[in-house]
């Protein structure tokens, strides 16, 4: 007959030994984790110490660049303002002295007129010759500055260049300039004074 062994019959000291081993393992694990945690903390602190100067340097660089951009903007604004003022001055001077060259050319005409008037006891013929010479000088000035005469005798009436003073009976075609009462003038293509004219009537019947 075999002797049955009770499961509860264990050798004394086994549970205590197992418990001690478990505690030792846990203590070792905790110690290892603590050591690793300490090492990680030191690494994090070192990384933070290394990273903080980089942030400060980046901030300093950003401030320097911002200052440079601000200075460049101020200089550009000042230059733009100077250009605007110079342009305004140029426009003002252009309006003010636009006829300077033309006026200079007219001075020679004035000189001729004064010289002719200064001659005492001038004959009619001499006076006429002096006036014709002065007229030629004035015509030369007009040609130089593209001032052309409008003398439309015998031409079709053009309301853009002519101003009709009256209409008259004529053998010419209706609406034709019969007589020029006062010549007109153009500056380049712009009429600065229309010609004053008499225009033929339409034939009755």
From TrEMBL:
Keywords: Chaperone, Cytoplasm, Stress response
GO cellular component, one term: cytosol
Encoding gene per record: grpE
CDD domains per the UniProt record, alphabetical: GrpE
Protein name: Protein GrpE
Assembly description: Homodimer.
PANTHER family: GRPE PROTEIN (PTHR21237), GRPE PROTEIN HOMOLOG, MITOCHONDRIAL (PTHR21237:SF23)
Pfam families: GrpE (PF01025)
Compositional bias annotation for Polar residues: 1-11, 29-40
């Amino acid at each position: 007959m075999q002797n049955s062994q009770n499961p509860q019959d264990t050798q004394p000291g086994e549970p205590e030994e197992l418990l001690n081993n478990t505690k030792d393992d846990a203590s070792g694990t905790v110690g290892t984790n603590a050591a690793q945690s300490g090492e990680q903390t030191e690494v994090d602190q070192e990384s933070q110490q290394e990273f903080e100067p980089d942030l400060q340097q980046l901030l300093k660089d950003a401030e320097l660049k911002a200052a440079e951009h601000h200075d460049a903007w101020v200089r550009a604004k000042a230059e733009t303002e100077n250009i605007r003022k110079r342009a305004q001055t140029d426009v003002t001077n252009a309006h003010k002295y636009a006829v300077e060259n033309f006026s200079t050319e007219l001075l020679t005409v004035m000189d001729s007129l004064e010289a002719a008037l200064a001659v005492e006891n001038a004959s009619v013929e001499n006076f006429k010759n002096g006036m014709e010479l002065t007229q030629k000088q004035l015509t030369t000035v007009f040609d130089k500055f593209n001032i052309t005469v409008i003398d439309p005798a015998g031409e079709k009436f053009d309301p853009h260049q002519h101003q009709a003073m009256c209409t008259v009976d004529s053998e010419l075609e209706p609406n034709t300039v019969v007589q020029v009462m006062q010549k007109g003038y153009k500056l380049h293509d712009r009429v600065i004074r229309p010609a004053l004219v008499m225009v033929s009537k339409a034939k009755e019947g």
